[in-house]
Model the fold of this input.
Amino acid sequence: MRSSKVPALLAALLVAGCFAQLEDQSVTVSRPLCNGAPCVPGGGANLNAALQASGYNTFKISFGDQPLLASSTSVGPATVTTSLLLNQAQFNMTTAGGNFQQVTSFTLLAAPRISAGSGDDPCAGATPACPTLAVYTQATDGTANQTLLLKGNGTDLIPLINATTHELIIEITATGQAPSPALWDADASMDMALKARANIP
Done:
């Protein structure tokens, strides 16, 4: 995400004289699960157990320092209110010989912290409970292959993004078997709908 939308919104505000609204129905952020070589355990093991045992059940999405990434913020004389709704999430396999055919469910949660390592589940017993962001279910969505597509539930991500680090921590919970390579990697992406409205008192 880039802050170029902010000047556009304020310019429209000056023309309108009282309020302006900016909408983008498809804003995408992405990152690989691993930093370099494949790192997520596979080998056809229980996927959820493998993720938790390795500590790769959580990852961060960085949004950068953006004025719009607040539910409500003041920009000059204007008050800007923003929402960022998750449309869908997607995982694209990047490891040769790997696929998601044996994955029966895959869920993304907003976690309070990154995993501390082997066996740690940041969402276990979390208060309040970690909100569900997107879900894939093989029984209703069909068998995945190289791409795992998760349906978003329209959660507003703005309140979940850390105001200091500008990051959102994601936890993966899953059922089924891990991809067959001993170690695998995938590009994770999130497609979102941005709406920002600026009002002058």
Remarks:
- The two ends are 28 Å apart (CA to CA).
